[in-house]
Amino acid sequence: MIYDPKHECMPREELRKLQSERLIQTVRRIYDHVPMYREKMQEAGLTPEDIHSIDDLHKLPFTNKQDLRDHYPYGLFAAPMSDIVRLQASSGTTGKLTVVGYTAKDIDTWSEVMARTMAAGGATRDSIVHVAYGYGLFTGGMGAHYGAERLGATVVPVSAGNTQRQLMLLQDFGADVLACTPSYALHLAESMEDAGMDRSKFKLKYGVFGAEPCSEAMRKEIERRWQIRVTDIYGMCELTGPGVASECEHQTGMHVFEDHFFPEIIDPETLEPLPDGEQGELVFTTLSKEGIPLIRYRTRDITTILDDPCPCGRTLRRIKKILGRSDDMVIIRGVNVFPSQIETLLLEMGDVEPHYLLVVNREGALDTLEVRVEISEVMLTDEVRHLEEIEQKIKAQIASRLGVSAKVKLVEPKTIPRSEGKAKRVQDNRTL
Amino acid sequence: MFIKQISVFIENKKGRLASLTDVLAKNGIDLIALSMADTADYGIMRAIVNDTDKAKEVLRAHNFAVTTTEVLAAEVPDRPGGLSEVLVSLQEQNISVEYLYSFVRSSNAKALILFKVNNGAAAAECLTGKGIRLLSQAEVNEL
Fold first, then answer.
1. If we measure between CA atoms, which residue out of A184, A180, A241, A205 comes closest to residue A124?
2. Could you tell me the domains of chain B?
3. Which of A45, A50, A63, A363 is deepest in the core (most CB within 10 A)?
4. pLDDT tens-digit map of A298-338
């Protein structure tokens, strides 16, 4: 279902006009209210008058995560605190939180784009939506909640954690839509099977999963185990939270809600914009935000913009599944390795569990990659030789498809930490 | 004729074997025979226990990967050349032994040996034909 046909199916010309108007307003706003942006623009010899349309976007300077840290907590806000009605934040693995503020209008927009997301995933006003994203400063829970409520669905605000209770509530309350991270959805499926629960007692039909990259193979695995349709969604706290882009029922990439978030792909080395269809780093400019508008924010996510028409009728361009984060990517002896690539090949092998961890070490001057994979009973026989063959097979797959040699190590079941939030797939022990 | 053996995956990490035997001990499961096959990083513990189903259940509950295999338990004469004669007879029938190990306990003048072969039925026929007695699951459980 298309929640907002006016904006989601807007003719491209008209959309471009709307984007241009909104960009001009946004640039005016940040120039007037955010010292950092004013300085950056002045350094580049720009004033708001130089921005006439969305085509002038490339003239504007980039924004990095470090800029948000440097102006912690409120330094990049473009609205007075009296207009800010909500704060959300994302936890950084390094240093301070990234804090964002929302005006009432920002919350309204966020609810709208999340209602679009929920509808694209299969939810309707008759749905019961089980939200197992964390509630709190993390945007996942609140975003999914407001969106489902805006759509008119019934929300079950369970938040993250306590897997047994989640399963009980899913079964008893009869939710047809589950919103959480893909790794948690898989963990729930596994726990359901472990507990000997009967899938037919659940009414689940759709999964709206985001907050971490989900490979195509992982999507298929979740769809198979839960027997649901999974849509991948995209967002980040800095931009609004979830609700920046969402797949539709055709699963051909995530439609970007371009009337609010303008996407670009750049070459992460040269910082030059790349044409649609080319792979690079995703950069977003918020077009309607008041609390903390961001210009050309470097997401570090690697993907491609698709501009061919989608059968669903939305005119919004799409982004491909996120291949990885340029900062999640590990470079092993000059080869870029994304955890999602390892995940895909493991799942394609069949009897291998998709629970893995990439461990990177430096021995002398040489980087080494160890891939730890949990053993499953399907793989186990009474012979060590059989396990050695599986290890060799994985190793050969990694070498031929990724072009890097890795040591493969089978580990006991459930020894790789399960995430209740984002899965940790890389342990980099190198001290550079 | 065949008896059930459990195979458990164990990482080569301090304390893993102890935690496995601890799980069995706490659940009153008796280890009748065992052997380890190992590599640098992990091993497979093969064991005969007095209650296979319960052992599988409690080990799984403690996140061990467990599988079962059928093996033969034979009484082999406990004297020089006793095992050799048995192996030669199997070889004559073109039956290959994948691995073997012995029971912890022995009875009288017989050594109890567990065989995993590529053709269980033929091996059983060959051994009984040579007067080698095979133990049943019930007998093994009583050891």
1. A205
2. 2-69 (3.30.2130.10), 72-142 (3.30.2130.10)
3. A63
4. 998 889 999 999 999 999 999 999 887 766 678 787 777 88
